[in-house]
Amino acid sequence: MDHKTVKDGKVITMDELITENERLANEVKQLTEKVAELSEQPKNLEEQLSTRQLCFGGGHLTAHEANHLLNNLPLEISFIDKNDIVKYFNERSESPEEMMFVRTKDMLGADVADSHPSKSHGKVMPLVRDLKAGKRDIESMWFKKKNQYIHVSFKAIFNENGEYLGIMEYVQDIQPFFELPSEMKVGLRELDESN
Fold first, then answer.
1. Is there a domain that residue 84 lies in?
2. Which of 105, 108, 140, 156 is deepest in the core (most CB within 10 A)?
3. 158-173: buried (b, 16+ CB within 10 Å) or exposed (e) per residue?
4. pTM for the whole thing?
């Protein structure tokens, strides 16, 4: 006796139904194996970091290269995500005391308010709100700290669809620019004017 059933308005035989069920079961098995493979911890994380390419707008870098590039920039960078959580800072120095703004690993995952001194909350938190809301794109300031002139900028980061991603803070000692020989400053100005 040939058993028949209706699927999607079509009459199919029991053999066709069994074949379709076997195909679907095989597809589920393959997807399950792929999920398991993707969720496995990498066997050699260091090797993957140094070989897997990350695509950026202007090229490709490995995570290892990107980390060293960011750590060798002549400024300190930190990133606060859209939920005001400290997600990243570059490590220009092994010693937090050598940094212009002290940042430690225990700050990662903390709320931005908890990563700034309480005396600065009256300035920092309204700035965060304004950057998030798009009232400001960037805010910069500078101040003197011992023998350094510290320049700080807070920049709102939005994706290509205008969705707010977070805030990048970058900090640089601008004292060396004041110490450039006057001939160098004039030479740079002349170069700029000749273009």
1. yes
2. 156
3. eeeeeeeebbbbbbbb
4. 0.63
